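Hey, resending since the last one bounced:
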Amino acid sequence: MLTLTPSLTVSFEAKIGFLFLSFLEFAVGILANAFIFLVNFWDVVKKQPLSSCDLVLLCLSITRLFLNGLLLLNAIQLTCFQQIQHPLNDSYQAILMLWMIASQVSFWLAACLSLLYCSKIARFSHLFLLCLMSWISRKISHILLGAMLLSLVCAVLCMWDFFGRSQFMATVGSPLNDTELGLQVPNLQFFYSFLFCNVMSLPPFLSFLVSSGLLIFSLGSHLRTMKSQTRDSGDPSLEAHVKALISLVSFLCFYVLSFCAALISVPLLILWRNKVGVMVCVAVMAACPGGHAAILISGNAKLRRAVKTILLWARSS
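The C-alpha cells again:
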C-alpha cells in the first residue's frame, strides 16, 4: 500500500523556488496567449475577416489567459495562505472549481480546433466522410457556439454538484465537526465533485480523439499515395498534416499531464497532507497552457509572420 509522509512544513527556499517557477510559467503563458489574442484581435479592430482557425484560436487564448491567472492564484494560495491542517478551505476550493471549469472550456475549444484541422487538411475518398468534413468546414462558427453552450451547461452542472454537496454537508455533517472523520468527509465530498466535473470532459475528449484519429488515417493514406507516385517529400499537404498533428498530439500530451497532475494533487492534499507533492503537481499544471500556446504559434503561418515582424522591429529600434 502506498504511504506518503505528511509534509506539514515546507522550507522557505522551497517556497521561494516554487513561487519563482510559478511566476515564470505565468509570464510565459500570459505572453504566448496574449500574443495570440492580440494578433487576432488586431484583425478584428482593422475590420479584417477572421478565418475559422483564427476565431477558434482567439477564443482559446482568452480561456488560456484566465486559466493562467487561476493557476498563479492557486500557487500563491498554496504557498502563502494554505494551512495544511485544513487543506481545503473555501477560497482554495473556489480556485480549484474555477480551474476545472476553465479547463473544460479550453478542452471544448481544442476539440473544435481538432475538428477544424481535420476538415481543412484531411483527404478522404469515402463519400460520407467527404460530406461530413465539408459540413464541418462550413459550420465551424456554429460548432464553436455549440461548444461554448455545452461547456456552459457542464459548468452549471459542476457548480450545482459542488454547491449541492456543500449544502448537504452543512446540514447533515454538523455532528462530526470536531472529529477527524468530520474533517475528512467534506474533503472526500469535494474529491467526488472533482471527479464528477472531470467526467464532463468526456464528450470533447472523444471528439478530439476521433478527429485526430481521422487526421492520422488521412496522413497514412497520403503517405501511401506519395510512395506509389514517388512524389517529393516537400509536398504542402504532407507539411500541413504534420503541423496539425504536432499541434494536436502536443495538446493531448499537455492535457493528460495536466489532468493527471490535478487528479493526483487532490488526494495528496486532503489524504496525505503532502504539500511538496502538491506544489510539484501545480507546477506541472501551470506549464501546460503556455507550452501548448508556444507550439500553436510555431505551427501557424500568420502568428509566425507576426513574430518575425516584432523581432525585426526590435532589432531596428
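The chain has a mean pLDDT of 82.

Sorry for the duplicate.
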